[in-house]
């Protein structure tokens, strides 16, 4: 009887773990279901590229969206459509994704240099 209980508990644990993994992986959604701010950024800053996949993830009650582009760029947006991070494998991140003040600093102080990773925590930018 103990062996049966142990086997049953094991399968319940494995099933629970699989459900958690599936939940964290997110759900693929149409591009049109992204927040409008996110759609605008992708359409304006990544012209000529196609969206391969848009994913909606919910963790601890917070919803984030991940967009994967045809050049393997990954952009994560928060629930209102502001970008959290951008990872670019092949091409540089376009300057047009940054706020005007930061864009001016990049153009003046880092002439000819562009980043492949940028993070926005809502207050600060890391490039």
TrEMBL record:
Superkingdom in the source lineage: Bacteria
InterPro entries: PepSY-like
The entry's keywords: Signal
Pfam entry (one): PepSY_like
Protein name: PepSY-like domain-containing protein
Secretion signal span: 1-18
Residue ranges occupied by any Putative beta-lactamase-inhibitor-like PepSY-like domain in the UniProt entry: 64-113
């Amino acid at each position: 009887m103990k062996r049966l209980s142990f086997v049953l508990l094991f399968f319940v644990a494995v099933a629970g773990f699989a459900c958690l993994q599936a939940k964290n992986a997110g759900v693929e959604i149409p591009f049109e279901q992204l927040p409008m701010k996110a759609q605008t950024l992708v359409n304006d800053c990544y012209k000529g590229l196609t969206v391969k996949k848009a994913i909606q993830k919910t963790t601890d009650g917070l919803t984030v969206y991940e967009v994967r582009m045809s050049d393997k760029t990954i952009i994560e947006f928060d629930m209102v459509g502001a970008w959290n991070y951008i990872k670019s494998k092949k091409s540089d991140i376009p300057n047009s994704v940054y706020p005007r003040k930061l864009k001016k600093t990049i153009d003046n102080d880092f002439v000819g240099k562009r980043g492949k990773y940028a993070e926005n925590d809502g207050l600060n930018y890391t490039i």
